[in-house]
Amino acid sequence: MKKSILLSIAAALFISAASFGQSSSKLVSTKTQIKFFSSTPAEDIEAYNTASVSTIDKSSGEVVFSVPMQGFEFDKRLMQRHFNNDKFLDTKAFPEAKLKAKITNIDEVDFSKDGSYKATVKGNLTIKGETNAITESGTVTVKGNVVRVESKFNVTLADYGIVFKKGKPASNIAEAVEVTVQAEYQ
Amino acid sequence: MPQRDVQSVKTDYSVSSSQIVQEYLNDKDGADQKYLASDGDSKILEVTGTVKSITEDFNGRKVVLLKGEDDPAGVSASFTPDTESGLDGVGVGDKITLKGVIRSGASYDDDLGFYLNVILEKTAVIGR
User: Fold this and answer.
1) In Å, what is the CA distance from B34 to each residue of A51, B18, B38, B91, B92?
2) Does any CB of chain A come closer than 8 Å to the CB of residue B37?
3) How many domains, chain A?
4) ipTM value
5) Domain that holds residue A43
């Protein structure tokens, strides 16, 4: 009897330690915004996605974003249709984009101290089934229990098999689009 | 061309949150084929389920998670400035029906280390 109580206390301690360990090193964010911005002499186009999910591992520096591609919202519906169709991002065949990377200087980010830290992010970006290695810079801001991440970088569409040879898309969509990622973790 | 008015479009499928999650976990490619449209004007769903949480997205829009007790994932539905008032008085544990457009399905994400929810957007409460 005594032994079984001790065992169950030990098990409970072990389980809570395990779940505590997990939640303390991995931060989760569902408060995200990804902005797509394309600028050409013909027009500027922008779209926003607020449905992505992200994690950051505070000890390993691993950062992951899963982006539901149909969540990009444009002002013009026709633009949104073009973005989704099979000549552009083909979101029916490739519904999610993924960033799997590492903050290489995670040791320089002190999550216990308020401040703004420069971060180097290195890893793989997968869009439309094509994966490319990327190295970008960003900012990690710590304020109390809230961690914010921001990064702005260019994505060359041709690297992901998106090429417009002629017509309106070729003149109105930039070859490299600017992507701004923001996320708030708690 | 104005934005798609999701709430005035006819509903394509009525399901429970558990049903659509299970359908996606059984066959994600098949479910994507069924629910997603190639121009992004994807299927309009009515989803019934139990409110697990009410949170806010990056821009302060309300997000409701419908999730069955034993389900590994749920349906995460974001509201608009026009539809948010329909959530007045709705709380965790309530059984409600939502209408919105599907953006992506449920799956286990190995890199994140947890299940992704089905995503609905431009959602409104249509039954409670």
Assistant:
1) 21, 17, 11, 31, 30
2) yes
3) 1
4) 0.96
5) 26-185
